[in-house]
Design a protein that fits this description.
alpha+beta
């Protein structure tokens, strides 16, 4: 949310009271780096936004005060305060900006033609994405697989294997292993 849209939050709260509202962290970050330009603090800002706990205040109290004063309530932009009911944890509104640019060619059409054009664009995009994902072995696309493999190296010696359907088995070098069922959302670790 830019500085020019401060009233939007209260209006949306009145019109859609049960909907969770969020701010775009990218816009907050742009304003933050004007006043706190060190690369260290900029990196810590993103760490703070992605964090599941609030530890930024210990790093730099003045930067924290700026965030508290200018970024508004952290429940609108920090993952630590996001509701667990909402299934999206996006911090930036780049998805909206992408979608708006994606439908640009349909905007000047009459309403029915516009919706038909958008429907076709979305169908084409879904087909392209499914083709890309369908070419990969396993349930995950290659980008996510690479990220998981990279993170497994850091995860204290844990590794995983896919069972071919809807589950994984997670192994540790100490000999522990846990079964994870994605469909049932269960793990034998009971966490």
């Amino acid at each position: 949310m830019s500085d020019k849209q401060k009233g939007l939050q209260s209006v949306l709260g009145e019109i859609l009271p049960r909907i969770e509202h969020r701010n775009c962290v990218q816009h907050i970050y742009i304003n933050f780096k004007i006043y706190h330009g060190s690369q260290f603090l900029r990196n810590k800002f993103w760490t703070c936004a992605r964090a599941s706990t609030m530890a930024f205040k210990k790093v730099d109290p003045t930067a924290f005060d700026w965030i508290e004063k200018n970024a508004g309530n952290p429940k609108y932009w920090c993952k630590a305060f996001f509701s667990l009911e909402v299934k999206s944890d996006m911090l930036c509104n780049n998805l909206n900006e992408f979608f708006n640019s994606f439908i640009l060619s349909a905007r000047d059409k009459p309403i029915i033609t516009m919706f038909e054009r958008i429907r076709r664009l979305i169908m084409e995009r879904i087909k392209d994405r499914k083709f890309l994902v369908g070419c990969k072995p396993g349930p995950l696309c290659s980008r996510i697989s690479r990220i998981l493999e990279k993170r497994t190296a850091y995860e204290d010696g844990y590794t995983y294997s896919w069972n071919g359907v809807d589950g994984f088995e997670v192994y540790s070098y100490s000999g522990d292993h846990f079964k994870v069922n994605l469909r049932k959302k269960e793990c034998s670790c009971r966490i």
